[in-house]
Design a protein that fits this description.
By secondary structure, this protein is α+β, with helices and mostly antiparallel strands. Helix content is 42%, strand content 14%. It is built from 8 helices and 4 strands; from the N terminus they run ααβααβαααβαβ. The protein starts with 6 loop residues before the first helix and ends in a 21-residue tail after the last strand.
């Protein structure tokens, strides 16, 4: 999908993105397409390429009912979206390091000696990083993934809305994950807009840039 996007299309994807709060509940996203969107979003960068983002795809009526009381200020998105994507960070993502780097070698993207050096360095350091720093790393990387997912969704013809207003202390346990390992980052609603989101205003670049 992404390889067919032209430069002008990409600019339109960025400038045309809106935060949508009301979706057409009669237009679902096929599971295969949603999986492809997540896969394409996973091309986002991450620290040492350990990819600490994880996604809870809440799309069934049962799942939506579980999530609804935890998003009391965003129930409209929950009720009408094709899915609510709970983006979480994995504080034990080093468990996947060997799988990731072995795959890079198998695909001819990395020499074995580079893999061996990188894996040794990561595994000698990352398991001993303090938990609060692991959480910070996971949140930063998962946020990069979330932003990319919003743009990828737009390229597929869908709309999104990021939200931070939810019960962070409950959402992980509600969906039967280990809340000592996984930390909530944000929730993205996704679907086909029923009402176009409002265009918002941004500060001009000269107001947010420091030249030294």
């Amino acid at each position: 999908m992404l390889e067919h996007i032209q430069n002008n299309d990409f600019v339109n994807i960025i400038t045309g993105r809106r935060s949508v709060r009301l979706y057409d509940e009669n237009i679902p996203i096929p599971k295969e397409e949603l999986q492809a969107i997540i896969q394409e979003a996973s091309l986002a960068p991450s620290s040492a390429n350990i990819q600490p983002w994880r996604v809870i795809v809440v799309h069934s009526p049962e799942g939506k009912n579980k999530l609804r009381p935890l998003v009391q200020f965003n129930t409209q998105q929950n009720d009408t979206s094709a899915a609510m994507l709970v983006i979480v960070g994995d504080t034990q993502s080093e468990l996947y390091v060997e799988e990731i780097y072995n795959s890079a070698v198998e695909q001819g993207k990395m020499p074995k000696e580079v893999r061996d050096k990188q894996v040794t360095q990561i595994m000698s350091m990352f398991p001993h990083i303090p938990r609060d720093l692991k959480i910070e790393i996971a949140k930063i990387d998962a946020s990069l993934f979330a932003m990319q997912l919003m743009l990828v969704a737009r390229a597929h013809g869908y709309d999104t809305n990021p939200m931070a207003g939810f019960e962070r202390d409950q959402v992980i346990r509600t969906f039967d994950l280990d809340d000592e390992r996984y930390v909530p980052v944000m929730i993205l609603s996704i679907g086909k807009a029923k009402e176009e989101g409002h265009e918002s205003v941004r500060l001009p670049s000269e107001r947010i840039t420091f030249w030294r």
